[in-house]
User: Fold these one by one.
Assistant:
Number 1:
Amino acid sequence: MEFLDNMKIPGTCIVDKPVYKTLFFKNVQMSAADKRSFDSFISTIRLYAAFQPDTINIPVYKDKIRDYSSVVVLLVTVKGEKIPSRLAEVIMHAIPYPMMLFFLYGEKWQLWMTGEHVNPSNPSQMVLENMVHSEWMDENQAPFAISEVRFTNLYDFYTELLDTFSKYLAAQKGMIHVTDGTEARKFLYSMEELEKEIDRKRVQLKKEDRFARRVTLNVEIQKLKQKLKAQLQQMKEGE
């Protein structure tokens, strides 16, 4: 795949082995809906690459809440273009390492990334931090080149990739003067939450028969759209 070649992943890091759905079912507490989602949306899963001290010269990073002893690249072939965010969350919770999660469909890809840490009050629970993802991208477009980031340790390595990706996505959305990955993720999260709320209201509107309630929902949708437009304009003006 051309985009993987353009990422310049060292050959020593490439694994390219299948990961079977049954491993997720056995090792992760999934609801019946999550299991159906796996079967409905996913065709194949492959562990494409692993960045760790024995495959590349990058030290491990560990502190009280983070364990960055490996960074993995997962390729998930899906059956359609619509992917629920819950699917990405389940996969990321299932594998206790930061990852570059690529969904593949035909000749296109989507990348999902997030920082993560252990919940201090429940060490067995992984907390995902402001997940970001691209739209469907063309085969020849690479999100970044591995060689362009710091190799000081695996936390810096992954965080810099995540920041680069986040700033790229924010710039695509219209955020100018974006120099900080954390700010970019906050902006992207805010935009996505508004878009999700608009979609939820639209679904309610389609199901609603009462005229008065339909009027109320239409007003609420217009207000959310105006808020979304205002935030986008604010970002474009760099305020």
Number 2:
Amino acid sequence: MRGRDEDTGEFFSPSRSQNRREALEVLALAEKLVALSEPQLAKLPVPEALLPHIRETKRITAHVAHKRQLAFLAKQMRREDEQALERLRDAMDEKGDAARREVAAMHRVEQWRERLLDDGDAALAELLDEYPHADRQRMRQLVRNTLDERKRNKPPHAFRELYRELRAAILGAAEGDADADENSDSEDGSPERD
């Protein structure tokens, strides 16, 4: 029984439905943790007390026993303080965002590579407009070598090197933009005094 405060009419504790929702959220987090590899787990702020339970849950493969062990892991996680679980959720969300950004960058580089191979100098001019620090001569040479490799059915060495060069140019520009944003945020905008 939850009980109510006679003065305000508010409940003393959360409802059973609220407790169940929170328990199911922790169970979902436990499932995500069990799905991670050891190196991925090592990068997360997992409380030391939970690591043996996570490993044990991974080890058990029989369906019912795995489900029971997963429920036990979630119970152990609920005993941890809420801040520890929140840090864990934040770290896992950050990894998801970082992975999505990495995949998007990879697709952008691949699109530029295909454009350079299909459109030649016109695409190279657009690339240099967008990323002026890219090396025109090196890019042109790699495009020629890649096309030559394709004609001769050779291994794609230049194709891969073109990808690496484009990735360095595109991601280098993105990092430079992020640094510029940080520097402009740190300045207060007031004029300098002599």
Number 3:
Amino acid sequence: MNYGEIKKCDIANGEGVRVALFVSGCRHHCKGCFNSMTWDFDYGKKFTEETEEEILEALKPNYIDGLSLLGGEPFEPENQEVLVKLLRKVKERYPEKNIWCYSGYLFDEELKKESRARCEYTDEMLSMLDVLVDGRFEEDKKNITLLFRGSENQRLIDVKKSLEQGQVVEWKPAIKRGL
């Protein structure tokens, strides 16, 4: 797997202060995508054991709330095996940190059912997520006032509650914001 960037103090891609990993490779090719260079699976740098350790070290400070996975597309099958291994280590080393993931694939229609995204790692990857921002970016539904998402069709999903209840449960922010 390749990645385009690691942000070690990100406040835009999930609640609190986060480490954000932007993976390479995406088949959605959403019109108006803010990160279209990461559509190419070969973009950026190779994800290595050193890269993994860099992320784990960046998560260490108490002020870091968690990890966010973005892209590209984290749920492309080519990316899931590497990400599952990373997430296992994050959960083991930092059980108190939360994990967010941004995906163009829909939780209930593409990640939980047969689709091009589903592979042997999908269910395990989902089980380690706290929040999933799902749905492709739709330029005609772009709204800069939305919390942690780019277009009105995208959903903020509480993954743990959704898996427990067998239906999509919306994530509720811990902090109220005005706008």
Number 4:
Amino acid sequence: MEPILIYGFPLGSSMGLVAALEWLRKPYRLCRVDMLGEMRDPSYARINPRHETPAFVTDQGRVLTENMAIASWLAARDTERRISFEPLSPQADRMRQLMAFVNTGFTAAFSPLWAALEMQTPNPAMQSALRQWGRGNVVQRHDRLEQLIGDTPFLLGDYPTLADGLLIGVARWLDFHAVADRNRWPKLAALRARLEADPAVIYATALEKGEHSRGAGGCAGHVPLAEVIERFGTPRA
């Protein structure tokens, strides 16, 4: 069977993994999930008890969660090295370093902003404090990433890799939360512009918005969430 990526909308970090699957050019399927609705349903816990996306059903029917675990699974099967590098190479070490930075500190910096936005019972004073704290963290992490970016068109060379995929799914949160002008970080802004113009990223963004679009990779179509839960979710207690 083809693996299935369960990706979320709106503005899910998983958008970049859809793009990475397109770059990989191997058969896969998708399952689109409303993170404000379907993902919060108790039945979704059968796929991910943390009620988060992404989740990934492997070609053996096993469910993986967490961006880094899914990226590692893809890298191990990237025999043509379209989105990764030889496991013991310096480039692979560098890719894992950048992915870890994006997946931890860079992504986590936005957590206070999401907490303020999603607070079920509004608390203006607490929300203001969370936004102030979050904006400071986001700026700091953008400063650090700007220092890490080299002179190549993409993070690790002349073509996008898994590291670029993980980044582009999250980097757009800067604009959504109106933290700062992206041009404050010229290297990162230029990288984002190249990625946003990439056909795979355009395709992934269109799917996230619910638009019917055809990619150039190996997508074999969408699978309904109910079917994924029934076939691959853990049995009900």
